[in-house]
Design goal:
Radius of gyration: 21 Å
Helix content: over 70%
Strand order of the largest sheet: 1-2
Order of helices and strands: HHHHHEHHEHHH
Strand content: under 5%
CATH superfamily: Glycerol uptake facilitator protein
CATH topology: Glycerol uptake facilitator protein
Largest sheet: 2 strands, antiparallel
Length: 249
């Protein structure tokens, strides 16, 4: 099981999701937008070096899970790792959010923007933000903790966080950290938190990730065709057959 086989990774995933809920509740609710994104991005550079296995959401582990199923990644995530990582992120953010809201008597959570009221459009925008995050992280080597690559990873995160603000103020992506924080605020201060659009937080990221997978599949197929790799693979069986005939002769 992932938790017993990788206890350090599991512990840091849970604990830093807990701490991230506090960081977001402080920065995203007290600092003027978009300054909190910049400060969180600078902190993410440090965390990517100190804790390279920690992700600010489930987009990266989703990409590794899909890549592992199709045999495209050496570090692909197993079903167990994917499920446990999402559960640990959500659980850490939920517990951290509950304690923060209870101690400071605050309903800190991602809140609906006032500029867009059409839920269908909100869903599409939030899905797009998560599509961008998943695509960017899948195109980068996350395990590389050099300074220049850390900047690439964090820049991808920051751009997706900025896009998320079109739908939810103080959001970083949705399905684990954000939904955990919103549910925590609802549990502690039920009358102060409006969850009429709660379904966007968990389901729009799933839609964005699915589109990302389909898009990247198409992208890689066209790239292989352009580089001639498809033609080489089709020619390989014929070459093998000729060699077998020569050996038998």
């Amino acid at each position: 099981m992932f938790i017993t086989e990788s206890p350090y990774t599991a512990f840091t995933t849970f604990s830093w999701s807990f701490f991230l809920a506090w960081i977001l509740n402080v920065t995203a609710t007290t600092l003027s937008f978009p300054w909190w994104i910049l400060f969180l991005g600078l902190a993410a550079i440090f965390l990517h070096k100190a804790l390279p296995h920690y992700d600010f959401g489930a987009a990266n582990v989703f990409g590794r899970w899909v890549g592992g199923m199709f045999g495209k990644l050496e570090n692909g995530a197993s079903h167990d790792e994917f499920i446990c990582t999402m559960g640990l992120q959500f659980g850490g953010a939920l517990l951290g959010g509950i304690l923060y809201c209870w101690i400071y008597d605050s309903a800190s959570a991602p809140s609906d923007t006032v500029s867009l009221h059409n839920n269908g459009k909100r869903f599409l925008l939030f899905a797009f933000a998560n599509f961008f995050q998943a695509y960017a992280l899948n195109r980068l080597t996350i395990k590389d903790t050099s300074l220049d690559n850390s900047f690439r990873v964090v820049t991808a995160y920051m751009m997706s966080w900025y896009l998320c603000q079109a739908v939810f103020n103080g959001s970083i992506g949705g399905i684990t950290i954000d939904f955990g924080r919103q549910l925590a605020a609802k549990i502690v201060h039920s009358k102060q938190v409006d969850m009429n659009t709660w379904w966007i937080l968990p389901f729009a990221p799933l839609a964005g990730w699915a589109v990302c997978f389909l898009y990247q599949t198409l992208e890689y197929t066209l790239k292989a065709k352009e580089s001639g790799e498809c033609g080489k693979k089709e020619a390989e069986p014929a070459v093998v057959a000729d060699n077998n005939v020569e050996e038998q002769a």
